[in-house]
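Lab notes, practical 5.
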Amino acid sequence: MASIELRELTKYYKQASTTVKAVDGINLTVEAGEFISIVGRSGSGKTTTLDLLGLLLRPTSGQILFDGIDTGKLRDGARAHLRGKKLGFVFQDFNLLPGLNAIQNVMLPLRYTKNGKDGKAHAAALLEEVGLKDRMHHRPDELSGGEKQRVAIARSLINRPSLVLGDEPTGEVDSETSQQIIALMRRMNREHGVTFILVTHDTDVAAQTDRVVRLKDGKVLSDIKADPDQRFLGTVDLQGVIA
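Output from the prediction step:
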């Protein structure tokens, strides 16, 4: 299980004579086993924050502590190793390779780690767990959008990560499938003890998470912890939180 701490985190970009402050002094702590969402309008910094959390970008300044490890002090190879061993990713457009079937797509991250000893059996077990026991040998073009995202969720767990990051994970599926995907992620969160951080613009998705962190202009505008009774009923009042 992973705990994450962001300390005065910034990410600035130069555009001609202008400095764009994509992330501007974020302080945030995520406890191990939490299930949270990051929301905000386009340009609020949520995707950049997710990329920083995923060690895909280096910050301009500030710190990202992963289980107490200051990731800014790690060399590129060590960062890649940490990313491969401890992090899983779920994307809006699934990012499945069209020439590989479901079980081959799930096993793909094993190529970059040394966790492949029981890889095929583990991949098959994960696909069965997400309800795709009978679809393991189907290619992406033979799967529905919801099935593709289930494959992506299984793939995100193949290296037994501590943290899974989701970038609009329900953005390409209908509302009913979206509910099923979030319910599946919550079950994985509970049963595997994996920390989930989801970037979303969907109020229905955000309402089902433990916390809703709202960003604006690269800063944390609010950090709301959901009432568990309301969350599971999907009645959390998020009016004005995302808009």
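Observations recorded by the TA: The two ends are 32 Å apart (CA to CA). The helical segments are 46-53, 76-86, 102-107, 119-129, 145-156, 175-192, 203-206, 228-233.
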